[in-house]
Design goal:
flat, mainly alpha
């Protein structure tokens, strides 16, 4: 493997970890889901990949500019903010342990990973800027470079969310039901916060 590609893949790991480890809606969802399902982080990362991999291919073929269009960012931000508000309400109203995240809404960890990815304007913006830069850098290595980029990036997501959900599960087995209720309440507040951030950011774009 060429030294240039190795360097790019190393950069991919470092940049990907800095993104996935940053607190956000996905982190809150993994902690809450992991409290009752130790492998929920794995399934959430699979749902995340369903959105992310086609997005990577679209940027590879030149669609990165579309993701930076104001109207696209506004729509994604408002819809994502509304969905996070609904998630927050569900968590705040939590009363008893359930096997699935927002099970009353029919959302499993896998589908939650899809919806949280699609509805996150910062996820879209990250790929339109930072992610696009990484993708452009692997273009000269062709499809092999692209394939390795996708694998290395997704492994970062898989490992981090998997570890986080497993740690949440083990912690809740020790701390018990009341602690799980507090986690749900905290994650609900977290969702409210990001809901406000997403919607306010979109509204600011309307006046630019």
């Amino acid at each position: 493997m060429e030294n240039g590609l190795l360097l790019i893949l190393l950069s991919t790991i470092l940049v990907s970890l800095s993104g996935v480890m940053s607190p956000g809606p996905m982190t809150a969802a993994v902690i809450q889901m992991g409290a009752s399902q130790k492998y929920s982080g794995v399934f959430l990362s699979l749902g995340h990949a369903v959105v992310e991999i086609p997005l990577i291919f679209s940027i590879y073929y030149g669609a990165g500019g579309f993701l930076q269009i104001h109207s696209v960012r506004i729509v994604v931000g408002i819809l994502g903010g509304l969905f996070l508000f609904m998630m927050g309400m569900s968590l705040i109203k939590y009363k008893e342990v359930r096997d699935g995240f927002m099970s009353d809404k029919g959302l499993s960890p896998f589908y939650s990973g899809i919806v949280l990815s699609v509805g996150n304007p910062y996820f879209i913006l990250w790929w339109a800027t930072v992610g696009a830069g990484l993708i452009i850098s692997v273009k000269r290595f062709g499809y092999i470079g692209l394939f390795l980029f996708i694998v290395f990036h997704w492994i970062c997501d898989l490992v981090w969310y998997g570890v986080l959900s497993f740690a949440s599960y083990k912690g809740m087995r020790i701390l018990g039901h009341n602690a799980y209720q507090r986690v749900c309440f905290f994650c609900g507040l977290f969702m409210f916060f990001f809901s406000g951030v997403f919607i306010m950011s979109s509204l600011k774009l309307l006046i630019l």
